[in-house]
Amino acid sequence: MINSNRENLSLNEKILEHKELIAALVSGFIILLAWRMESTEQTTAAVIAYLTAFFIGGYAKAKEGIEDTIESKSLNVEILMIIAAIGSAIIGYWMEGAILIFIFALSGALETYAMNKNNREISSLMELQPEEAWLVRGGFEPIKVSVKDLKVNDHILVKPGERIPADGEIYKGISTVDEAAITGESMPITKNAGNEVFAGTVNLNSVLTVKVTKPSSETLFQKIITLVQSAQSEKSPSQQFIERFESVYVKAVLLAVALMMFLPHYLLDWDWTTTLYRAMVLLVVASPCALVASIMPATLSAISNGARNGILVKGGVHLENLSSIRVLAVDKTGTLTQGTPVVTDFVVRDDLDKQQTLALIAGIEGQSNHPLAQAINAFAKEQDVINEQNITIEDIPGYGMKAQFNEQSYIIGKPDFVGAKLAKQFADGALEQLANEGKTVVFLKDHQGIAALIALKDVVREEAKKAVAALQELGINVAMLTGDNETTAKAIAKEAGVSTYVAECLPETKVEHIKQYEKTSGHVGMVGDGINDAPALATASVGIAMGGGTDVALETADVILMKNDLSKIAHAVKLSRKMQRIVKQNIIFSLTVIALLIISNFFQAISLPLGVIGHEGSTILVILNGLRMLSKNV
After folding, report:
1. Is the separation of the CB atoms in 278 and 264 below 8 Å?
2. Which branch of life, at top level (predicted)?
3. Which of 139, 248, 387, 407 has CB 3.0 to 4.6 Å from 363, enough for a Cys bridge?
4. Cα gap 510→356, rounded to integer Å
5. Whole-angstrom Cα distance, residue 433 to residue 484?
6. Burial, 405: exposed, middle or buried (Cβ in 10 Å; 0-12, 13-18, 19+)?
7. Is 154 a catalytic residue?
8. How far apart are CA 451 and CA 197, in angstroms?
9. How confident is the model over 392-421, as pLDDT tens digits?
């Protein structure tokens, strides 16, 4: 019974969310029925059906238009469309009025749907910040408290595998921390006493005592949420222009119709019947039906084309903005690169067998859940190596591991752990070159010295290189923003072919760079896949997320690459530019037709039926022109 109630509630919520779209579609269906009735001379039934379509399709927009007019004390297009539809009905053209209502209602419903998706609460992001923490006071046992109750200088205990609940400084302990949620850095970072840690990051392998340095409302994680919400609430320049144009257009048309209702009678000696008739014709032919159709069919067709090619666009305005981007900022981890480390180099001392040494390393690393250890084990499996068993290990957090095997002692880990001098000398000084290539190097040491090294790297996607080249051909500069260190960032940027890069970026600095690019270059696109990219995705003119990214990145972004293929961005830009050309053609054509119809009406050279044919005909033509966007060729 409870499950049934929940299902009914969920269904009701979905109906309420899409009520405008449902009303528009029902209105369209009733119009078809009314047209059928009219064709079989059921005039009264047809009129009743048209009135029903008027009410169902136009109620939401009429209510919105009236409320907005009262609130802003300014007329809008909703009012004009309702008056135009009523005017059509008054002079006997019920179907034309109903169609005007249907088109406008459908357009508004689609806009509402896109807006609801774009402003959905980022609940998945909120869940990553713990709600409770283990508070440590004196020599007492830790107690669980709400994160909101934590104060600056409180000490909290963070166990292995737990998310750090507050921004702070490590008071006691050494551990490896995964900061991908904040910096996007794929490699976990070793943290010692005195190092800064952030809320939402993960403590991987050792107990930490953290001193709280910021209240929960001011953590870096909370700032990410605030930045996303703030950026999403800002109106785009196109939206602001449309709102200004709307007010001017409506006032101009209504003023012209009002003047047309009596001036020709006195100035041109028209009789009252002709004067009122011409005023009604003006109201019909001047309605912006063709202008609305100039944009929406082309936009929806372009969005459909993109979807077929693995590009999901959340709204027409984002597709429009794609055509004018001059800089594309890209995240590194998971965007230009695979997002997980892989083994790129394996060097063994001359007196050792390569397969046996790899089996030993994999046997040691197989007992760790560290991302580097997992990558080494994956490499061993690819080489068909069977891990050595019965190895005793001791984990040294932040450095590596000690191991015992066949009565021999081994050390595996970072250069400083096995001996920095020995590490630098091994394999003719390979460490320096590998580090300059942005690789992380792990060493194995036995009783004779360094036995082997394994270099790992988050490798650049092959399609990313082609995508960067294709974008540069379109006149778009590609800039990489990453949380990685300078050495790694430089190596990845060179390999991927990007023109500029910025290393060691936090979410806040990514936003700052996006804003700077907008000042110098105009429209800016941002590509990312992590939570840390969400503020930059929301701030950019167009935010583009990889389909395999985090939920918050997908919700925040304006465009989603469903197959994680960066080469699709170039296709999206071409699609957008073609759409803009078609939209401009449609707008010029529709405005020209409206102007000709208005002039013809003034000179009494056109009747109402011909005016309707010209008006609806121009609408059909611009729709057909817009449907060209469905073509596979871009």
Report:
1. yes
2. Bacteria
3. 387
4. 45
5. 18
6. middle
7. no
8. 35
9. 988 887 788 999 998 899 999 889 899 989
